[in-house]
Fold:
Amino acid sequence: MTRSWTIARAFLLRLAQIAPLAGHHGWGWATGEEFELAGTVKSVRHGNPHGIMRLSTPSGEWTVEIGQPWRNEHAGLTPQLLRPGTRLLVHGHRSARKGERLMKAERIVIAGKSYNLYPDRPS
Amino acid sequence: MTIGATLDRVLEAVEQAGPVTALRESTFAYPLVNALHIIGIALLFGAIVALDLRLIGWRRTAGSADGFARLLVPVAGAGLALAIPAGLLLFATDARAYAASPLFQAKILFIGLALANAVWLRASERRRPRPRPRLALAGAASICLWLGAIVLGRLVGYF
Structure:
């Protein structure tokens, strides 16, 4: 009993620990409030189911979810534009979970030019 | 070089293989492969739950377990034949992250156990007389293991 409980507990704790794949589809997980974040691109992973960008900001490192390839392409947001070191401003919605540095991008502004991933949503 | 580092390099090479990159960056192929994975799971799970329930003893008068198996095992097998290659393709697009995910590792463990259980069941079919309570137990284990694999697989996308 105690041994199997110890193993089960260790297993559950391990499951809760790492969150490398955080896939957020839809908007339900984010707040309804408009949010903006300025920072410098640290790294980007492009591709399905959606791209993920790490951003260095004055308030620490943030994870920004961008679109899947076709959405980024429609917005004119090419991988060349999002190279590490690029300064940009992200409009969108942040995670509703308190303290979580995670947001989903609606619109990204680079050098004064706006790239709108969701033209049908206010941002 | 450690085994972990070697595995990491292999998985990185998998991610960067031409067809895998094309799938990751595709517009329609990725969601379609996703759909094939789900269709495979639906076929597999639907057929296998019906067979497991018959093994447990539900609706015994509906027909022999052998008869059910003749119909449902090929359907489940077709589902598996669809779900596994589609799943491997999805895995390949982000191989290192999936391999590092404890939820994904647990999912693979559940699938392995469920398949081992199925192989044991098939092997025991050739032994007669069959101990019915053990077949019922195997059926119940099968339902739990496949349910677990599906739930874990879904959780991978959210944690």
